Amino acid sequence: MESAKNHGKIPEVVPFVLAVVAVASASLLLAWCAPSLHVAPAFARVFGESWLIAVVLLTAYFAPRVSAEAVSVAVLPAAVLAALLWAELGTEWLSVFALITSCVLFLGCLIGGYIGALLEHPGMLFAVAYVAALGDCFSVFHPHGLTANVLKNPHALAVLTLSVPVLGTTRIVPLVGIGDVAFAALFMVGARVTGLDPRRTLVALAAAMLLAVSSVELLRVSLPAVPFMSFAVVAAHKETRRLPPAQARRILLNLLVVTVLLGSLWLVARPPTLG
Fold it and tell me: What is the pLDDT of residues 223-241, one digit of tens each?
């Protein structure tokens, strides 16, 4: 009966692949046209940020649930990005720019789709959101954090992030990290598999990313986007604020361990005070 019900149903991966191909093609076209589109610098900046927010949300919305067997496909885009890092090829080539865009979206959404598919209760999204927010803050602000080190390496930054062409110029600037793509997909897939409204989740993520971008513009510093997304998803779904009763104690203990561990690493990295 179940097979008959699913017969003729389009696999989740099909609209996802179509979305990635459409986004990469549109990004390539935009990069080709950008130098001839002369606009005010402020408009070019707002357009670029809005473009990438739309790109992340579109692909995350269609991100498929990924099984343990299927997640091995992530090796392919990961290998391509590693090869580009090794060859020191970046977004200066438009074809490479489109390839990086495709691989970052594929890899991020596959990882997020795999983790999101493992969730069995809405309350688990709270645990994931907490760890994700804490980990992203550590990654950005800790001197040895992954994001902090990528930000210091222009080539790694170009290969491991989504970039956007700047209207009126030939520049292509990186703005959204692969981790942000992964967690946006994780929250969308996690909401879907735990019975939460995916449209409300999408709106929450959109508001979070807009607030994150606005905060960066206002403060003129690099800020982690995942804490904004985590807070928005938990705020949008009250179901996430109730942990599964049978696992609540274990989840809270694990969250405490993660907090202590990251807090200890942060304290160790602090420079010694004089006197």
Answer: 889 999 999 999 999 999 9
